[in-house]
Design goal:
The complex is a heterodimer.
Chain A lengths: L10 H8 L1 H22 L8 H7 L10 H5 L11 H19 L4 H13 L1 H6 L5 H16 L10 H7 L4 H18 L6 H19 L30 H16 L3 H17 L4 H21 L5 H26 L6 H13 L5 E3 L5 H8 L2 E2 L7 H12 L4 H10 L2 E6 L1 H6 L5 H5 L5 E7 L2 E6 L4
Chain B lengths: L3 H22 L7 H14 L5 E2 L6 E2 L5 H10 L4 H14 L1 H13 L2 H12 L13 H24 L4 H16 L6 H17 L5 H29 L13 H4 L5 H8 L1 H17 L6 H15 L5 H29 L4 H28 L6 H13 L5 E3 L5 H6 L4 E2 L11 H13 L3 H11 L1 E6 L1 H7 L13 E6 L3 E5 L10
Helix pairs in contact in B: 1-4, 1-5, 1-6, 2-3, 3-4, 4-7, 5-6, 5-7, 5-15, 6-15, 7-8, 8-10, 9-10, 9-14, 13-15, 14-15
Classes of the chains: A mainly alpha, B mainly alpha.
C-alpha cells in the first residue's frame, strides 16, 4: 500500500521543487563563488587544474586544435575563470529544458541536478576548464534543438559537430548514443539522422586522422585507479562513497524495472574507458549521478514497513553526500597552482632562457608551460606511460649514476621543486637528497618552493 | 532441564569469577592496553579523548572510535581507572555466555546444546587475554547481540510478531553503538550481504523489514566511519584498511592462516564441530536459521584471506560463531545416538562425557593462555615510572614498539614509535630507525638517529634484550657518550654527546 503523505504536507519541499532551477543554480554559483573567493584571498590563480592551463598555454609542444584552446586564443586569459561556472550553469539549464521535453519527473530532475552540483568531479569542472564539460553542454544543446522537431532540428548539427571535436572517445560516444536513439529507440526513417551521423563520423575521422586528436583527452594528472573514482580516498575527482552506494541501489532498481539494456552497456563502456584513462571519470561520474538519483527516488517512493528507518536512512544519505562535498571543497582550497607556484614559475620565466627545459612533478607541467612559458619535461596527456615511468625513474633514483643520464637525455636545465613535492618525496634519500650534488645549484627559493639549475656535462 | 536461566547464570558467574581471578593475578596489562588506559584517564579529566597526542611519536594526530573509552570513563567516575580496566573487559567478555546461549537456543531450540555452546563461549582460549583492556571486549558482545536481534527481526517479520518494532529499535541502537565502537562492524554488514545473496540463491524469502534493516545498517556504518576516519581515508586512501602498518611487520598482524594456531586458540572441539556444521550447512542448507551465522563465517573467512582484518580479531569472532554452531553439532550427535542401537547408558552419559571433554579441551587451554599473556613485568613498569620522576618533561625516550605505550602512560614522555600507526607519515622510516637503534653496532649511526628524533633516553628492558638478542646492553654504548641513569634488570641510558665536527687538538 502506498503510504505517501499528501503533497500539502511537504510545503517546503514542494516550494523547493517548484523553484528548483533558481535554488540549484544559486547553490552552484555560491559554491563556485566561495572557491573563487578563497583563491582570491590566498592570492592564488583563480583557475585551477592542469587541464585549464593546458588550454591557456601557448607554449605547448604540439599545435592543438582543441575547441577550448582555439576559444582562448580569442578570449583573454583574465576572463578564463568565469568560463567554468558559466558552463556549469548552462549545463543545468539545458538539462532542465531537456528534462521537460522527455518528461523526466520533477523530483528525479531535482536530485540529478543536486547530486551533479555536489559531486566532486563536477565541483571541479565548475572551477577548472574541462573539455568534457563543454562536450556535455554541446550535447545537451544539440539534444534540446533536436527535440524541437520540424526544420529547427537541423540546427542541432552545429552543437553536435562541435561536440565531436573534443576527442575520439567522446565523438564515438556521441555517435553511438545518437545511433541508438534514432534507430532502435525512435526507429526513424528520415534523412536527417543519416546526415547527422555521417557528419559526426566525418568530423571524427578528420579529427583523428588529420588533426591527430587523441583517443582519450588527458590525463593531466598521475592516475590512481581507485582514488580517482572515489573522491573520499583523497583524489580531486570522482564521486563520494554515498553516491556510489545510492548508484548501486539505483542499478538494482533499474534491473528490476528492466532498464538494464540501456544501462549495462553504458556502464561497461564507461568503466572500461576509466580503466584506460581515469580522465574519463567525468562520464562515469555522470552515470553514477543519474543512477544515484534514481536510487534515491526509489528509496523515497518505496513504501517502507518502517518509516523511522526510511527517514533515518535518507537523512544519513543526504548528510553523507553533503559532508563529502563540504570536505572536498575544504581540500580544494589547497589545490595547485598555489600563489607560491605562480611566483616561482614567473621567476623562471623572467630569469631563464626560452629554450630551457624544466623538470618538476608531472602534474606541474601545465603550470610550467603557462606561467613560466617554458617547455616541461613531462606531458602526461601525450604519452602517459612513458612520462609516468620516466618521472618515477627520475624521482626515485638513488644514485647520481642513475639520475644524471636521465636528466642529460631529457636536456633538463632547470628544476622546480614545489611544496607538495617536498612533502611527498623522501628528504633523506632519492631525488631531494641528490640535489646536494655540486652539479645542482639553488637559484631561487620562496616559502616552500625551490628552483634549481642542473649543469649538463660539457 | 528445568531452570536453564539459572544454569546460564551459573556459567556466567563462574566464567566471570575465573576471569577476574586470572586478571588480578597479573597486576599489569597487555602492552596495547596502555593506550586505551591513557585515553580513559584523559576523558575522565577533560571529557574528551586524546585526538591530538603530544607524546606518541613525539606528537601526532589520532583517529579512533571512542565509545569503549567513554564507557570505561563512565565507570571510572566512581571507581579507579585501573580497577575498571581489570573488571570491565572481563565482565563484557563474560556476557558472551548468555548471548551465546540465546543465539544457540534461537537457532537450534535445543537446551543442552545451547548450554554447552554458552559454556564453550565462556572458555575460548582466544578470549582469555584477561589483562587486556581493549576494544574487542566490547565489540564481541555487541556484535553478537546485534546478530541475536537480527534473528529476532527475521523471525518477527516471518510470523508478524507484535514486538517486531521493538526488536528493530533495539537493533538500531545496538548497531549504532557498534559502529561507534569498532570499524570491524563491517563483518556484520558483509555477513548480511552474503546472507542476502545466499537467501536469493537458495530461494529463501528475505522479508522487507530485513532489507530495510540491512540498508539502514549500511548507511549508518558508512556515515559513522566516514565522520571519524575522513582524514585517514584522505591521507591513506584504500590502504587505510591496513592501518598504515609498516611493511616489515605487517605479516605479524596479517599472518597467513595457520591451522595449528587456530586449533590452539579456538580449541579443538569447537573448531572441528563448527567446521562440520558449516560444511554440512553450506552444502545442504537445511537449517535456514543458521543462514546468517554461516554468512558471517564466510564473511570473516573472506576478510581474513584478503588480509583485511587482523588474524587474531577474526579468530576471536570466528571462535564465538563456532561455539554457537556447536549447539547444532551436539543436537545432531544426540539425534544420531538416539537413532542408533547404542546402549541407553551411552545416551544417558553423552552430556556428562561432552562436558568432561570440553573441560579439558577448552578450560585448561584458556587458563594457560591467560597465564602466558604478554605483559610487562613489574620491574619494567618501575623503570618507566622512574623515567617520569627523573627526566625532563620534554624528553624523548627510545623503547621497543610494544613498550611505546609504557613510555607515554607510565613515563609520561614522548616515544619514538608505538603500535598506533594511522596518520603517521613517516612510519616506515621510524620503524627502520627503531630497528637500527636496537641492532646497530655503530655509534655514529645511533647518534645520528638519536639526533634526528631528539632521543635522550634509551630504555633496554629484558623483553627488548630477548627480542633483539642483546646480551648486556646496546653495542654502541660507551661511557663517553652515555650515562647509565638507571640500572636494574632494565637499563636506562642517558645520551651525553651529539654528532658534530671533530675538534682540532
Amino acid at each position: 500500500m502506498n503510504k505517501h503523505r499528501p503533497q500539502n504536507d511537504y510545503p517546503y519541499f514542494n516550494h523547493l521543487l517548484r523553484y528548483q532551477k533558481i535554488y540549484l543554480c544559486g547553490l552552484l554559483m555560491l559554491l563556485s563563488a566561495l572557491s573563487l573567493f578563497s583563491n582570491y584571498l590566498q592570492e592564488k590563480p583563480l583557475l585551477m587544474g592542469g587541464e585549464s592551463y593546458f588550454y591557456l598555454s601557448s607554449g605547448q609542444p604540439d599545435p592543438s586544435y582543441q575547441p577550448l584552446t582555439l576559444f582562448f586564443r580569442v578570449i583573454p586569459d583574465q576572463l578564463a575563470y568565469l568560463f567554468p561556472p558559466l558552463l556549469s550553469v548552462g549545463i543545468i539549464l539545458l538539462f532542465y529544458s531537456l528534462a521537460q521535453k522527455i518528461n523526466i519527473p520533477e523530483k528525479k530532475a531535482f536530485l540529478i541536478v543536486l547530486f551533479y552540483i555536489l559531486t566532486p568531479t563536477f565541483i571541479f569542472t565548475s572551477l577548472a576548464l574541462s573539455s568534457y564539460s563543454l562536450f556535455l553542454l554541446l550535447t545537451l544543446c544539440g539534444a534540446n534543438v533536436l527535440l524541437l522537431g520540424t526544420k529547427k532540428k537541423y540546427f542541432a548539427l552545429l552543437p553536435f559537430l562541435l561536440a565531436s571535436w573534443i576527442d575520439t572517445f567522446s565523438a564515438l560516444l556521441l555517435l553511438g548514443g545518437l545511433a541508438v536513439y534514432f534507430f532502435p529507440v525512435k526507429k526513424s526513417k528520415e534523412r536527417f539522422p543519416i546526415i547527422l551521423l555521417v557528419g559526426i563520423a566525418a568530423v571524427l575521422v578528420l579529427n583523428a586522422a588529420v588533426l591527430k586528436s587523441p583517443f582519450f583527452l588527458g590525463p593531466f594528472t598521475v592516475q590512481h585507479k581507485t582514488a580517482d573514482l572515489i573522491s573520499d580516498l583523497g583524489s580531486f575527482s570522482g564521486v563520494g562513497i554515498f553516491a556510489i552506494l545510492l548508484a548501486i541501489i539505483g542499478l538494482i532498481s533499474s534491473w528490476q524495472k528492466k532498464n538494464v539494456p540501456l544501462l549495462l552497456p553504458a556502464l561497461a563502456v564507461f568503466i572500461i574507458a576509466y580503466l584506460f584513462n581515469t580522465h574519463t571519470v567525468f562520464f562515469l561520474s555522470l552515470l553514477i549521478v543519474i543512477l544515484a538519483a534514481a536510487g534515491f527516488v526509489d528509496l523515497v517512493e518505496q513504501s517502507w514497513s518502517l518509516p523511522f528507518l526510511r527517514n533515518a536512512a535518507l537523512l544519513l544519505l543526504l548528510l553523507g553526500i553533503s559532508f563529502s562535498a563540504v570536505a572536498y571543497l575544504d581540500r580544494l582550497s589547497g589545490y595547485p597552482p598555489t600563489a607560491v607556484d605562480q611566483k616561482a614559475l614567473e621567476w623562471i620565466q623572467r630569469n631563464t632562457k626560452e629554450e630551457t627545459a624544466v623538470l618538476s612533478a608531472p602534474e606541474n607541467s601545465y603550470y610550467i608551460a603557462y606561467f613560466a612559458q617554458r617547455k616541461p619535461v613531462f606531458s602526461l596527456h601525450q604519452d602517459y606511460q612513458h612520462d609516468y615511468q620516466l618521472s618515477r625513474d627520475i624521482f626515485s633514483a638513488f644514485y647520481i649514476d642513475e639520475l644524471f643520464p636521465l636528466l642529460e637525455k631529457n636536456k633538463v636545465s632547470i628544476i622546480y621543486i614545489s611544496g607538495e613535492m617536498k612533502r611527498q618525496l623522501p628528504a633523506q634519500q632519492e631525488f631531494l637528497f641528490l640535489l646536494q650534488n655540486e652539479r645542482f645549484k639553488l637559484l631561487y627559493f620562496t616559502e616552500d618552493a625551490e628552483v634549481w639549475s642542473f649543469e649538463a656535462k660539457q | 532441564m528445568k531452570k536453564p536461566i539459572l544454569i546460564v547464570g551459573g556459567i556466567f558467574a563462574g566464567v566471570l569469577l575465573i576471569r577476574l581471578i586470572l586478571a588480578f593475578m597479573i597486576p599489569e596489562f597487555t602492552y596495547e592496553s596502555y593506550f586505551h588506559l591513557r585515553q580513559v584517564e584523559h576523558i575522565v579529566e577533560t571529557g574528551v579523548p586524546f585526538y591530538q597526542d603530544p607524546l606518541s611519536y613525539g606528537g601526532r594526530e589520532l583517529a579512533f572510535l571512542p565509545l569503549f573509552h567513554y564507557l570505561a570513563a563512565l565507570f571510572s567516575l566512581v571507581f579507579p581507572v585501573p580497577l575498571v580496566a581489570k573488571i570491565l573487559p572481563n565482565l563484557l567478555t563474560a556476557l558472551l555466555v548468555p548471548i551465546t546461549y540465546l543465539i544457540s537456543k534461537k537457532i537450534t531450540g535445543h537446551e543442552h546444546g545451547s548450554l554447552l555452546a554458552a559454556f564453550i563461549a565462556g572458555f575460548l582460549p582466544i578470549l582469555y587475554f584477561t589483562s587486556g583492556f581493549v576494544v574487542n571486549t566490547l565489540f564481541l558482545p555487541l556484535i553478537f547481540t546485534a546478530i541475536y536481534f537480527h534473528l529476532l527481526i527475521e523471525e518477527g517479520a516471518k510470523s508478524g510478531d507484535r514486538n517486531l518494532m521493538k526488536y528493530i529499535y533495539i537493533y538500531a541502537i545496538i548497531f549504532f553503538i557498534l559502529c561507534l565502537t569498532s570499524p570491524l562492524a563491517a563483518i556484520m554488514l558483509i555477513g548480511l550481504g552474503i546472507y542476502a545473496l545466499l537467501s536469493f540463491v537458495e530461494g529463501k524469502k528475505i522479508y522487507r523489514e530485513e532489507v530495510e534493516v540491512i540498508l539502514f545498517s549500511i548507511f549508518l556504518y558508512v556515515w559513522v566511519q566516514f565522520l571519524f576516519f575522513k582524514k585517514s581515508l584522505l591521507q591513506e586512501g584504500i590502504s587505510f584498511v591496513w592501518q598504515n602498518i609498516p611493511s616489515t611487520i605487517i605479516a605479524q598482524y596479517f599472518p597467513k592462516f595457520s591451522l595449528g594456531v587456530a586449533l590452539v586458540l579456538v580449541s579443538i572441539i569447537p573448531f572441528l564441530a563448527g567446521a562440520v556444521v558449516v560444511y554440512r550447512s553450506l552444502f545442504q542448507l537445511q537449517n535456514q536459521k543458521s543462514f546468517l551465522l554461516i554468512s558471517l563465517v564466510i564473511a570473516t573467512s573472506l576478510l581474513t584471506w584478503l588480509r583485511l582484518i587482523r588474524f587474531r580479531q577474526s579468530l576471536a569472532f570466528f571462535s564465538v560463531v563456532l561455539a554457537i554452531l556447536f549447539a547444532a553439532f551436539y543436537q545432531d550427535i544426540e539425534r544420531y545416538v538416539q537413532k542408533t542401537k547404542l546402549s541407553s547408558n551411552l545416551q544417558r552419559y553423552l552430556l556428562p562425557i561432552t562436558i568432561l571433554i570440553l573441560l579439558f579441551s577448552t578450560v585448561l587451554p584458556a587458563i594457560n593462555t591467560a597465564l602466558l599473556q604478554d605483559v610487562p613485568s613489574s620491574e619494567e613498569v618501575q623503570a618507566f615510572i622512574w623515567i617520569r620522576e627523573n627526566t625532563p618533561p620534554s624528553a624523548t625516550v627510545l623503547a621497543t614498539l610494544d613498550e611505546g605505550h609504557l613510555v607515554t602512560y607510565y613515563g609520561k614522555r614522548k616515544n619514538l614509535i608505538d603500535d598506533r600507526f594511522m596518520l603517521v607519515d613517516d612510519v616506515e622510516k621510524r620503524f627502520q630507525s627503531l630497528t637500527s637503534l636496537f641492532t646497530t653496532k655503530f655509534r655514529t649511526e645511533a647518534l645520528e638517529l638519536a639526533s634526528q628524533y631528539d632521543i635522550e633516553y634509551f630504555v633496554l628492558t629484558p623483553s627488548a634484550k630477548e627480542k633483539y638478542q642483546l646480551k648486556k646492553e646496546f653495542p654502541y654504548i660507551t661511557r663517553r657518550c652515555f650515562d647509565t641513569a638507571y640500572q636494574n634488570e632494565t637499563l636506562i641510558f642517558k645520551l651525553k654527546c651529539r654528532l658534530g665536527p671533530t675538534e682540532n687538538e
